[in-house]
What does this fold into?
Amino acid sequence: MKELKKGVYWVGATDWKVRHFHGYELSTHRGSTYNSYLIMDEKIVLIDTVWEPLTDMFLENLSEVVDPRSIDYVVVNHAEPDHSGALPAIMKYVPNATVIVSKKGIETVKEHYHTDWNFKVVTTGERINIGKNDLMFIEASMLHWPDSMFTYLTGENILFSNDAFGQHFASSEIFNDEVDETEVYQEAIKYYANILTPFSKLVAKKIDELKALNLPIDIIAPSHGILWRKDPMRIVEKYSEWAAGNSQKSAVIVYNSMWGATHNMAEFIGKGIGQAGVEYKIFNISTADRNDVMAEIFKAKGIILGSSTVNNGLLTSLMPVIEDLMGLKFINKVGTSFGSYGWSGESPKLLTDYLTKAKIKVLQDGIKIKYMPDNKELEDCLQFGKSFAERMLTEF
It folds into this structure.
């Protein structure tokens, strides 16, 4: 239990050991938190819960502040199980409490828990008085589920933003001015890149709507990770930048190699990019963390994919990256491809086709080399990288 402001508490759960999320789809190197909040006014309000396996920790934190049977309102900003998993446990204490949901939320909560609690559906701008303060609601559909919404506490000026503005980050502290902000922002952009990117247009629209409400905001309290107390609107501005698809003048090379030929190509393509004055990073996807790689691609302007040719196709380790590129719908990116082969050599063409399907602008044809590259062919790779970087720079 930690106090945000007088009468407002964090009562969530910290998961120091979790290293995968959404099944095994998202890496969480720094652990995570499941943030739940308690408001003690004339009415007692619980905002979100925690993942079901951490229910005992959650109930212990909650009970440090109040008898759970005293809760009047339970706000479900989003029904995904990492936020609502302990909801059935809470409702056993307060079966008649009002469960506040968005228009889509009533469907998602019922479909998850198959129970007909005392629901109240709210829409953007609607308020509920809880004593000296009001709860105000802002629908945030597809950030990142249809049911998502924000809850704003008047008087204390706290925006409970659920999945927006959060990160997977476990800490003994809860505020951004108490921790290493560099680490927090690393996790925030990774979270955005791997989860929210496909909804960037909606993110931009929602931020405009939020600003138009002209709400005083002292704290932004997301459902994962650190809360933003020092300059809280800075993370909102970062979201605006990320939603706009602003890129750095850099390139990312992602490849795999069977016997080192494609690896050597990657190294010399990178040298060529560097000679053109462009920063680059190289990842062998067989050893790199895919979500970290996607965060780097999200930040960069250029993406170059490489693979040996096997069975007239690609090394299968590249396919999750390709699926992410198509599913996350990155914008304002440019790319090309490369690869080595023995007798057929389809990989660069296949990779180029995938880049095109992912709506990444292909700046030049891919390069392929048979068996192991010699010095002249490595020089060709260097010039290939240099040419790509120079063409990429004209895109800014």
About this structure: The mean pLDDT is 96. The first strand starts at residue 2 and ends at 5. DSSP finds twelve helices and 24 strands in the chain.
